[in-house]
3-dehydroquinate dehydratase
Amino acid sequence: MKRVKIKDIHIGKGMPKIIIPIMGETLQEINHELSEAKQEKPDMIEWRADAFLHVTNIEEVLRLLAEIRKLIDDIPLLYTFRTYKEGGRKEVTLNYYEELLSQVIQSGFIDVIDVELYIEQTIRERLVQIARQNNVIVLMSNHDFQTTPANKDMLARLIAMQETRADIVKLAVMPQNEEDVLRLLQVAAKMKSTYAQKPFITIAMGPLGILSRVGGEVVGSAASFGSAIQASAPGQITAAELRYILQTIHRYSK
Ligand SMILES: O=C1C[C@@](O)(C(=O)O)C[C@@H](O)[C@@H]1O
């Protein structure tokens, strides 16, 4: 499987990487979250820009992005605008999504961009192309906040994402029972053993899904999201708790 190198971080190698999301609505909240997040020494910081109150103003976004870059020094930065229909905070037009992401990609401030699989194909391909031209890593994602699709459907989504020009792929689903969590883990293990050519991230959300957030090393999921102040999705544990469990599993997996 191909690994992805972002600064000094090798995604797809060793212990799953810890990503801390920033969910502040205002500059002040974001600053506070960033300073707490930095203390946890994450492998990556995710700015969930859909939570930012002024996200519909691209100039404001770029200004803040410059600030964030300065504040986090060399920590890899993932920029995510999660669309409303995949669990995000704000609804915007597809045109705005494209314009926002292309400007952010070209800003020079980010390392990784989240692009959703199920946006219109031409827009998705254009964004991937711009990211490639600007040396920004593409994390292609898909979220189901209601259900855990059938195993073959989950596998098909991961493979479909892998077959685009994305660098890393991610699937998050919502389990309704314990079986659903086990199915998600089974799909991850199948990816690891048979299909994975690129690093992948698999998540079962909600309280039932915690096993999937801590068990990535066993089934091949390359990263996990842990909070500093605010969780960005149901079932997310803190980055400190995550680190302890991931390190323990890593130590005994060798
Ligand atoms: O897509 C993901 C994964 C996530 O939804 C989770 O369940 O940890 C959290 C989001 O911030 C991130 O963009």
